[in-house]
Each structure stands twice: as structure tokens, then as C-alpha cells.
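Running log. JK asked me to keep both predictions on one page so they can be read side by side. First protein, sequence followed by its C-alpha cells:
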Amino acid sequence: MPQPRSRNVRRMQPLVAWRAMQKLLADKEDTVQVFKIIKALGGGELAPNLKRFKATEAGARILRERQEILHVLSDRDGLAAMPAGSLGRAYLDFVGRENLTADGLVDASLEGGGDGEGFTDEENLLRRRVRDSHDLWHVVTGYSRDEIGELSLLAFTYSQLRNRGVRFIIWMGLRKARKLLPGVPVADAVREGFRHGNETAWLAAVDWEDMLPRPIEDVRALVGHKRPIVYEQAVAIMYEAGVPGYEMDPLAQAA
């Protein structure tokens, strides 16, 4: 049966994005606003990303088999049974330390981004896969969930996926950070994230199910990961200054 034609190229809603941004700036944990911004400004990037996804061996198979990464990431017993030092164990440690669940973004995305109406089944599968693997991207890239880490990972993500909503969040986040964190190389860390996103393999099409049992350093080598040195320097400054949210030693943060 032919796929329905996508209607995801829609008129942008800058006022919706602006109102959502004000709420996000007031509370960076209000993830619903992230999806509202992405919905208000994004959409046009999905068709070329899907075309690129389908052109890869892993992407074509994932679409053919209707493979959902959320099921694997929700299986904590299965992740715990993976070898020490594996990506799966590192991911489990990360979500445990951050008090996260694999499906934590699902409700926020449904409230903020809608239920996928107007997108094809294949587009929705790709949207879900990118959403559900967000914390895996944190683990592989070495960016934690602190404010600088999220901005840097968003820059990495924008360079890979080119969503206008993500770019807007980065721009506004940088404006805030420059005022609140003088002397901290936040802008340099964000530029580093963007550069690394261009230099790393396209993570949207990585077969994470196959990668999870492998040693995390092998996975990083396979995707061409580069250590986020500027980000680590920014975190070290925040850590040494005793800034709330940066209580973890920067060397542990990078692990």
C-alpha cells in the first residue's frame, strides 16, 4: 500500500515559538516547550532526512522491520545484563544518575509536538527514533544534561538534522548564557558541538540496537566521536566556581 503524501512542510508559527521559548528560558526542564518550538518552526527538514535515512542499509532495514528503539531502551534488565563498559551499561548508568526513563520524552513530545498527524508512517518512525535516542546521543558524545551540555548537544543535533526550531533554541540559549556566565566559553563549546556534529557519522541512521552491547569506546571510534574538550573546560570552570548543577567532577562528567 503506498505511503500517504507527507504534509509536514507547513507554515511556520513564530509567535507560538516565541511564547514557548519564554517558558523554556524560565524553566529549562519544561521539555514540552522544546517540542512546541520544533513543531512551530520545523518540518521542512524531515523529508530530506528521511530520504537520507532510507538510503542507508540500517535505515532501510529499520523502516522495513518497523524497528522501535524505545522498546530496547526501556528494558532495564536487558541493559543491565550487557557487558561492563558497553554502551548499553553506560546508557543505563546515565539515565539512572539523571533520574530519567527511556519514555520520558514521549508525553512531552505528544503534548508539545502533536501525535504525528500529517506525517507518513515512515516519517513518524524516524521522528520517534531521533526523539527516543536523544539520551544515547548524550552518552556517545560525552555531553551531560547541564545547561552548557544541552546547548552543545543541540548544536551537534542541528548540524546533523538542520531543524530550524533547534537552531532558535540554541540562539536564545546562547543569549541567556552570555549574560549569566561571563568568562565561561559557552559559545565556543556550542561551536565545538556544531563542528563535531558535522565531523561525526550521521547518528540518526546508527543501528543502536546492534551497538548497545559493544564497548562504548568502540562505538565512539566507529562513529568518529571527538572528545568535547571546550565543553569540558567550561564545565570545569563551573565546577570550580561551585555553580549549582555542576557538582560533578569534570573528569567524571566526560566519562
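And the second, directly underneath as requested:
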Amino acid sequence: MAHFKVACNEASLAQRTSGALIGTDTRKLADAVSQFARTDGDFGTAIPGLSLHRRHKQTMPLHCIYGLGMGLTLQGRKQVVVGDEVVTYSPGQSMVTSVDLPVISNVIQASVAQPFLGMMLTFESRTVVQIAERLQLSQRIKDDGFKPVTVNDLDAGVLGALERLVALLDEPALINSIAPLVTEEIIIRLLLGAHGPQMLHVVSVGSPSQHIAKAIAWLKLNFCQTLRMDDLAATAHMSPSTFRQHFRSVTGMSPLQYQKQLRLQAARQLMLSEKVDASSAGGLVGYESSSQFSREYSRLFGEPPQRDIKRMRLQ
């Protein structure tokens, strides 16, 4: 889903210029994905990091975390919100997320006759770093502002590699040996293409974006702990005020807001998947006050915990 600033005119331009790709170029991959995603839902696959998605109608906004990777809409349209920014991407466009971000996403165009079809491929950050170093790309970073989410026209080479990746699902014996090679090809093509400058910001040693990416990684693992801003800023080699400024420019929110979203989304998942009660869920993610947990949960998700989980289970 940094500040995310994919400007509206940039997104609109991408939508206009992608028109030629909406036909047969993505239809082959859409047909392949539909063979594995035959009903509504999110489908993990035997290929690490690859998931397939199908919806037959518009969906309610969903709070989730987008990690380092690429999202692709093959049929229908999807909208992603980070902070105050809204990005819409359609067939013929690719969306790349360079750092882990709390986002709000929803399908905005789908029908029974033309269901939304999409896929996501996440990457290991160390793999991206190793490839960038091998290709000696660290010196190619531009001085323009960092955008943690970018939407660009789908590169034909990336599309071909994705088609070969999905085709491997029909040849499970080859997945372990070939899928990593195809995934590496996709990363190389992204680094060398339109998404490359933004991806390189977070793998360039010593760049502010890389320091923030490391802080984000720490927060994801330790969001239950009390946040000490001075300590977190020190790990990024910045003063607290500079750290807050860079963190907000990357994620669209303050470190405290980021931690809060991680906590509340984790609590929601505990209640939904493991049937943990609201009071226990709040405590497990770091809240000392159940009333504060309920207030902040309602503010983010629109309803108190019990009512929200009941509604989610009825969907």
C-alpha cells in the first residue's frame, strides 16, 4: 500500500497510456490465474511469495500490510490508500511497494461476468539487495523524492516472466528449481525499469530511505514493545525530529501511528482467526488499557472490536 506521493496526474497518465495493454497482453495471464482462482478468495500457491486473488463484486475497504513486492491487476480495478494518497491501478499496470506499509485496499470494479483477477508477488529484501549489488546499481539512484508505492505501465518482459511463473503451478516438480530463477528475473527487470529508482532507495547503503526501512522492519517485529523514539532514531543515525520527518515522508504517518496500525491489525487477526476475546487481544499486542484499545480500534476500523469481528465473519 511514502509519503506515498504518487500524484493523481501521474496515476491518471499511467491509466491513459496503459490502454493498449488491456487487451490480449494481460488476458493470457488472466486466463491462467482464473484456472487456479476459480472462486472468490485469496489463494496462496506453492511458489514462495505468490498469491492469486478473485472477487466477483466490489469489496469494502480492507486494512492490511503491503510488503516489498509487486501487485498486478489482470481484470477489474483496485484502489489502494496510504495516508492521504489514493492510487488506482488497472490491467496493463503494475504496482510496486518498496517498504512495508499499512494500507487500505479494495476492489472497485468487478462483476460476475468480469470478476476482479489479480496477483501479488512479494520479495525477500536480502534478495533485492544482493541483486542490486551484483548489478552495481547503487550509484544509479536519482535525487528525486522517494515514493514507497509506484504505479507504472506493465513491462512486457515482466509480463512474460509472470506468465512463466504462473505456468509452473502446472509443473510442481519444477517449482523449487525454476521459480527462484524466474522471480530473480522479475526483480532484475523491475530494478532496471521504471520502478527501479524507487526500489533502489531502500537498498542503497546509508540512504535515509534505507535507514527508515530498517526502522520499519524493527517495528514490524517489535510493535508490542513500548516505542522509545530517541532509541529508534538513534538506530537510524538521525535526530528524533529528523527521524520523524523522514519516517512520515516514507510512510505517510508518524512512527507512533505506524505502530498503532500494526498493533490493531494484529489484534484484529487474533480475534478473527484464533477467536481471542477483545480484552486479551489488546493485551497481547501491547495495550495496557482495554478501554484505550477499544477506542483506538473503533477509530481505525469504524466499529468496536466485537461488532467489527461479527461483521467480518458474516461477509
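Observation for JK regarding the second prediction: Strands lie at 41-44, 50-55, 62-66, 69-75, 77-82, 85-89, 93-97, 101-109, 116-122, 149-153.
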